[in-house]
Amino acid sequence: MAFDERFGNFKRVELMQAAMERGFKLASFVSPRAMVAGGVRIGPNAFVGDGAIVGHGCRIDYNCFLLPGVCLGSDVHLRASCWLESAVVVGDGAQIGAHSILRSGALVAAGVQVGRGCELGWPRRYDKDIAAKTVYDPRYDAPIHVYG
User: Phi/psi at 40 (nearest 5 deg)?
Assistant: First the structure.
């Protein structure tokens, strides 16, 4: 398992695909110090770190990575290969698209849908739906939209 930022997450995706093509099934790791409610579904090769809180009815797809201190409300859906850094909070019923990265301090409001391949790097509250491939980079004053 690769522990890193963008490169690490992309490398994890490549490694997961290669392992699946060869018939391997990779178990998930949920820290004994994480709090996971009932009715939660966690896919293969997911990682849930110390002190993470996962609310009732959440669905965490394969290859997702929740660093220590992440908090998911109830009925949150993390699609495949999401990377959530420490102190990320995701409200009830929110959906996070595949291959998205949520950096420390990102607060996703209840019911918000984050598109595929987004990066929420501004430490702020995101209370509106976010289109796929949108990047909030702290080096820029406006979000970056990737086309094609």
Answer: -90, 135
Amino acid at 122: W
Could you read off the pLDDT of 35-73 as tens digits, one per residue? 999 999 999 989 999 999 999 999 999 899 999 999 999
Q: How many helices, marked H, and strands, marked E, lie in the chain?
A: 1, 19
User: Going by C-beta distance under 8 Å and a sequence separation of 6 or more, which residues neighbour residue 32?
Assistant: none
Which residues sit opposite 125 in a β-bridge? 107
Judged on CB neighbours under 10 Å (0-12, 13-18, 19+), 115 is middle
- CB 9: neighbour CB atoms within 10 A? 20
d(CA 3, CA 32): 19
Indicate left, alpha or beta for 8 from its phi (over 0: left) and psi (-120 to 50: alpha).
alpha
Q: Do 92 and 109 meet the contact criterion of CB atoms below 8 Å apart? A: no
Q: H-helix or E-strand containing 78?
A: strand 77-78
Residues making up the chain, counted from first to last: 148
Task: Please give the pLDDT value at position 9.
Answer: 61
Under 8 Å between Cβ of 122 and 140: no
